[in-house]
Amino acid sequence: MAKTILVTGGAGYIGSHTVLQLLLGGFKTVVVDNLDNSSDISIKRVTELAGEYGQNLIFHKMDLRDKPALEQLFASTTFDAVIHFAGLKAVGESVQKPLLYYNNNLIGTIVLLEVMAAHGCKKLVFSSSATVYGWPKEVPCTEEFPLSATNPYGQTKLFIEEICRDIYRSDAEWKIILLRYFNPVGAHSSGYIGEDPRGIPNNLMPFVQQVAVGRRPALTVFGTDYSTKDGTGVRDYIHVVDLADGHTAALCKLFDSNIGCEVYNLGTGKGTSVLEMVAAFEKASGKKIPLQMAGRRPGDAEIVYASTDKAERELNWKAKFGVNEMCRDQWNWASKNPYGYGSPDSTD
Ligand code: UD1
């Protein structure tokens, strides 16, 4: 019997790629998403890309904080596990509007966990972030590193991790995997789904992509005086399809072993600087990306990359793609969808 997975935030960037990989892997998926920061066009496209498996995808527009609606969903469907992506994720906005972030991310998660417990569904994969390592004292980051948060968005990731550890301590029937994502980039190789941030992108590659298609004049490089090979910040970029496959590996672990509450890094283990990433994108796209050198962005770490040993060893998962494939697929998506899922008038 195919297992049925509830995917919260499944219309978003990482969610939509994960739903596609789950469908292709033979899972049934039910997506709930409030569409605050995503489009249901991604759901339609995932359904098409999944071919005959597309019939195994059901979508409900729903906010997790709407407890009666979530209760009703759990009453009508038996879920084998939940993958919880839903949440707000813009660091700068979280500093401006902390209550919005605490309300959305924490209350949404608490309601979800309450309803799961009430219905005896106690298997969870949660989207955490490398942001919980703060400014790491050394690299690569292992799962045992001390945790810290420098902004409300990061706090919500940290709090939710702690909530998960606490509920497992209180009830050993729970099986929980916390996945700490490094920097997801790229898109599905079809170029049919990809990242489509609202407003001005905060993250590097969505910004680069918008410069390449002519929506923005230049990329501002935040910081050129870091102690790195070329002075710019170093990150662990991971292809979103590799990241999506990491969720299938995590689900298999939940179903096949006596895991309690465990945490895994999902990264490549390789560090790439801003200038290296821009060069790889220019090569993949044939477009010149004009640069504006600027000071450091407050709160930015110098070098962050993952230790991938634990995920390789225990999840049997390893990223397959490198930065050239990430940039090729990012450009394929960007050139086919210069305005994402919208039109020139629907974005700024
Ligand atoms: C950021 C968030 C992190 C979040 C992650 C999600 C901050 C401080 N951190 O991480 O909490 O989990 O996104 O993917 O926002 N850069 C530029 N110009 C730009 C944008 C970025 O030079 O316009 C540089 C940054 O200084 C950094 C690198 O590119 O060195 C990557 O930045 P970004 O994509 O925002 O990711 P993180 O900072 O790693």
Automatic annotation (TrEMBL):
<comment type="similarity">
    <text>Belongs to the NAD(P)-dependent epimerase/dehydratase family.</text>
</comment>
<keyword id="KW-0413">Isomerase</keyword>
<dbReference type="InterPro" id="IPR005886">
    <property type="entry name" value="UDP_G4E"/>
</dbReference>
<protein>
    <recommendedName>
        <fullName>UDP-glucose 4-epimerase</fullName>
        <ecNumber>5.1.3.-</ecNumber>
    </recommendedName>
</protein>
<dbReference type="InterPro" id="IPR016040">
    <property type="entry name" value="NAD(P)-bd_dom"/>
</dbReference>
<dbReference type="InterPro" id="IPR036291">
    <property type="entry name" value="NAD(P)-bd_dom_sf"/>
</dbReference>
<dbReference type="GO" id="GO:0003978">
    <property type="term" value="F:UDP-glucose 4-epimerase activity"/>
</dbReference>
<dbReference type="Pfam" id="PF16363">
    <property type="entry name" value="GDP_Man_Dehyd"/>
</dbReference>
<feature type="domain" description="NAD(P)-binding">
    <location>
        <begin position="6"/>
        <end position="329"/>
    </location>
</feature>
<keyword id="KW-0520">NAD</keyword>
<dbReference type="GO" id="GO:0006012">
    <property type="term" value="P:galactose metabolic process"/>
</dbReference>
<keyword id="KW-0299">Galactose metabolism</keyword>
<dbReference type="GO" id="GO:0005829">
    <property type="term" value="C:cytosol"/>
</dbReference>
<comment type="pathway">
    <text>Carbohydrate metabolism; galactose metabolism.</text>
</comment>
<keyword id="KW-0119">Carbohydrate metabolism</keyword>
